[in-house]
Amino acid sequence: MVSSSQTSVEAWNKLKNLYASQSCSRIMGLKETFIKLSRGSSSVGDYLCHIKGIVDDLTLAGDPPNNDIVVLHTPNGLGSEFKEISAAIRGRDIVISLEELQDKLIEYESFLK
After folding, report:
1. How would you class 2 by CB atoms within 10 Å of its CB: exposed for 0-12, middle for 13-18, buried for 19 or more?
2. Using CB atoms within 10 A of its CB, is residue 83 exposed (0-12), middle (13-18) or buried (19+)?
3. Residue 96 in this model has a pLDDT that exceeds 60
4. What is the pLDDT of residue 18?
5. What Pfam family is a match, any one (predicted)?
6. How many alpha carbons fall within 13 Å on the CB side of residue 47?
7. Of 16, 45, 60, 113, which has the fewest CB atoms closer than 10 Å, so is most exposed?
């Protein structure tokens, strides 16, 4: 299917149409997964990779989440040992990027060990 494409744009559009289900139920399922996601026993890095995967899937499905929402919701699934840094992140006047959040959380996880 993709091999018959004449241009990279055409190939991308074929892949996007093939894999990016834009149905409302898919989007709602991804949002529910994001809201209910918890780190459990996995590392902060693995947890954040899962978050980024959901963000990417939502974007492909045509409903990219707002950075502020992602950054403010991500600490919810970290557990009580991250309570202090979560409060500091939420208390900022300017919301940080997801990449900055990742750096801070991984650094804090190292501090806890």
Report:
1. exposed
2. exposed
3. yes
4. 73
5. Retrotran_gag_2
6. 25
7. 113
